[in-house]
Amino acid sequence: MKEDVQKLVDKGEMLPLMEEFYTIQGEGFHKGTAAYFIRVGGCDVGCHWCDVKESWNAEIHPPTETPKIVENASQYSDTIVVTGGEPLMWDMTPLTNQLKEKGLQIHIETSGAYPLTGTWDWICLSPKKMKLPTDEVYAKANELKVIVYNKDDFRFAEEQAAKVNNDCILYLQPEWSKRDKMMPQIVDYVMKHPKWKVSLQTHKYLNIP
């Protein structure tokens, strides 16, 4: 990457854009909501079951001017979801400031492993064992979404729930490839521990991108 471009990326004035698309939010509290997704490349958290591993290497995704991303997003929806990869690897301040100038609602989906930057209307925290969230993200998360791949993830979920704020909504979501095995266990767990809710990747059931 050229040095001048790298400087703009470091400041958040350009971002390694993997893809952007208008669809229906399929997961968590806002499921069923029309939203414009901005998927930013780059992630070193390294979940072995990640379904967008092509997002991990930021260098293969073209640095894109933040105003261009904002202009595209503002044409489609009032709700913008910034995801990755791990978007907090980059300074989100320029992106969110410009989206706010358009009067848009801005959500982020993050592992929380990096310092929180940007201004957000909704923070979906999906923590990973390999690289735990920062204290600030725990304190500000609106929803906690723990992916359940095996039985140990229930223990991990309770550890994470103890760290978030009292208003944070708690979700357990089966990892897609393990849904048939883990869903009965999740249902049973939620019925025994009703502070939790079940989150499904409804867009995959509905064949929505």
TrEMBL record:
Binds 1 [4Fe-4S] cluster. The cluster is coordinated with 3 cysteines and an exchangeable S-adenosyl-L-methionine. Binds 1 S-adenosyl-L-methionine per subunit. It comes from the Bacteria. [4Fe-4S] cluster binds at residues 43, 47, 50. Pathway: Purine metabolism; 7-cyano-7-deazaguanine biosynthesis. PROSITE patterns: RADICAL_SAM. One of its GO terms (molecular function) is S-adenosyl-L-methionine binding. Residues 30-209 form the Radical SAM core domain. InterPro entries: 7-CO-7-deazaguanine_synth-like, Aldolase_TIM, rSAM, rSAM_sf. Belongs to the radical SAM superfamily. 7-carboxy-7-deazaguanine synthase family. This is 7-carboxy-7-deazaguanine synthase. It comes from Mangrovimonas spongiae.
